[in-house]
Amino acid sequence: MMPQNEYIELHRKAMAIVWITMRKRERKKMIGLKAKLYHKQHHKHQTKNDEKTPQGAVPAYLLDREGQSRAKVLSNMIKQKRKEKAGKNRSIKVIRTGKRKKKAWKRMVTKVCFVGDGFSRKPPKYERFIRPMGLCFKKAHVTHPELKATFCLPILGVKKNPSSPLYTTLGVITKGTVIGVNVSELGLVTQGDKVIWGKYAQVTNSPENDGCINAVLLV
């Protein structure tokens, strides 16, 4: 014979299963803010822990490590400072676009660069690398090592930037960059009495700090 109270327990269990199934179906259909709020509440309920963690408690897998050594702490500090410095002096800045500012595929050059006269800009919507006109230089102060004189000469192009091949492609000018300059004004000639039109020069300063490009002619 089945005890009288058991059918009530069975009914409760059956109803609980039905309710859980219904909630699961509802949860699958939820979208937007309602879904976010429900999942947050559900997660909080699932991960609820009434036991208070004592102050200064260490997990079991870290019990063998009593504390970090002084050298390790110093090493981590130096690494952190380097990261901060790199972030501060980053020459390509991420630009967020779109209605919600979620797209981050555009970049803006924050260092001095050279853009030729024949450069045709893409439509702003499709432009990946943005080079502000305020940082685009057309002339450089070039010093001739033998004549000991400085001339303001037009830049023809960026030959090589030692920092990165990408900088060379974009025409970014930093310290140590080799640029091509128009030296036709200097009246330099070859052994065959032909006028030298262009020569290479190496940048000796940081143009983004000084506001001008200083270079030495490579004779």
Summarize this structure briefly.
With 219 residues, the protein is α+β, with helices and mostly antiparallel strands. Helix content is 31%, strand content 22%.
Q: Write down the CATH class of the domain at 137-217.
A: Mainly Beta
Q: List the helices and strands in order.
A: HHHEEEEEHEEHE
Which stretches are low in confidence, meaning pLDDT under 50 for 5 or more residues running? none
CATH topology of the domain at 137-217: Thrombin, subunit H
Structural class category: alpha+beta
Shape: elongated
Helix content: 25-40%
How much of the residues is beta strand, in percent?
Answer: 15-25%
Report Rg: 34 Å
> Which strand order does the major sheet show?
4-5-6-7-8
Report the end-to-end length measured between terminal Cα atoms: 111 Å
- Helical stretch tally: 5
CATH architecture of the domain at 137-217: Beta Barrel
Query: How many runs of DSSP E, i.e. beta strands?
Result: 8
Give average pLDDT, whole number.
85
Q: Largest beta sheet, briefly?
A: 5 strands, mixed, barrel
General description of the model:
The chain has 219 residues and is α+β, with helices and mostly antiparallel strands. The protein has a domain at 137-217: Thrombin, subunit H. It is built from five helices and eight strands. It has helices at residues 6-29, 32-46, 70-88, 165-170, 207-210; strands at 92-97, 103-109, 129-130, 139-144, 149-160, 178-182, 198-203, 214-217. It has a five-stranded mixed barrel with strand order 4-5-6-7-8. The longest helix has 24 residues, at 6-29. The protein is elongated and about 120 Å long. It starts with 5 loop residues before the first helix and ends with a strand. The mean pLDDT is 85.
